[in-house]
Structure formats: C-alpha cells, structure tokens
Amino acid sequence: MRSRSSKRKIVLATSNPGKLREIRHDLGDLPFAFLSLQDIGANENVEEKGKTFLENARLKSLAYSSLSEYPTLAEDSGLEVEHLGGAPGILSARFSGPGATDERNIQKLLRLMKGVPWADRKARFVCQLVLSRNGRIIKEYRGQVRGYIALEKSGNRGFGYDPVFYYGPFRKTFGQVPSEAKNAVSHRGRALHKMRRYLLRSLGSAEKRA
Predict the structure, then answer these.
(1) Does residue 102 carry a catalytic annotation?
(2) Is residue 127 within 8 Å of 191, Cβ to Cβ?
(3) pTM assigned to the model
(4) What is the CATH number of the domain that holds 92?
C-alpha cells in the first residue's frame, strides 16, 4: 500500500464538513491523497458571485487551484423547489439570511410550503463538480436527484435539507436513511460517481505513460 506522501494528491475545495465527509466516503478508496483547504494554506473563502451552481463551482475550483500544484475539486450544490421558482437554489446554505443554519433554513422552507398540495411540492437536489489545475478547468460533472418537500421534518441523518427531502423510491426522506443508501442515489453521489470513473481513467493513463 502506498503511503499518503507517495500518492497523487487532490485538493477538496470545500470547508463544509458534511460535503467533505461525503466526498471522502465516495472517493476515499481511490489511490489518491485528499488534501483539505487548510493543508494548502487557503485561509480565505472564495466569494460565490455566480448565478448558477456551475459558475460558482468554477469560481471556487479555479481560485483554489492557483494556490497549489495539485488538481483541485470544487463543488456547488443546493435545493431547487418547483413551487418556489427554483429557490432556494444557489442561496440554499444562506436561505434564512445572516447566521443561517440548517434548522433555520428548513423551518423557512416549511413555512413557505405550508398548505401546498403534495403534487406541487416537487423539488430536486443539484450538484456541480469542477476539477481544475493551475487555473485551468480539467473536467466538469453534474448530478441531480428528484423528490418532494416533505410536510414536516423527518430524520436526523445527513445535513442541510436532507430531513425534508422525500425520495419516492425509499418512501423516506434522506434524513431517515443511512448515508450509504443516500450517497448511492443523491445528486452529489451521482456526480462523484462520474468523477470517480474519470479519475480512475486518468490514473490508468498516467501509469501507462510512466
């Protein structure tokens, strides 16, 4: 087994502990060493000025990739609710305003959806991944999963809006199922599955050239 120091390195450009946990879970068995932003001395957050998940993911990936020699994987993701015209969208993490928390965001969402019939509670989670190196984009992948906004909060697993995102095939919210089950079908899991295949192909090509 290769040591961390001898493995190829990839920077995970997020400070969100839930996202870090899911990315490391899905990619952790690959022969790469995954570095945090702290590992490369990135102490300031990149301002998310984009109007889409893709624009924000590109901003973060390109900016952080200039701080080290390593490929840098960034993502932007969130919840889009059909009845709310796609909100909270790129504002998902800040939906309830300054000092937003997962709980406050959920409660605001449930208030806005109060009395809305089930058929009109359609929603989707979206994740956009961008891999860059030295200020140049290498690969981009998108994942999404469709569901409904539950009538009330159910479950305490996961993070973010998981306890109110009802996924039909499970007949449960994402907050009610083990992380392994959620990650297999989630927006981030689907995007990471594509990125995983790319990284394996990339690794194989590098080894053939060596």
Answers:
(1) no
(2) yes
(3) 0.89
(4) 3.90.950.10
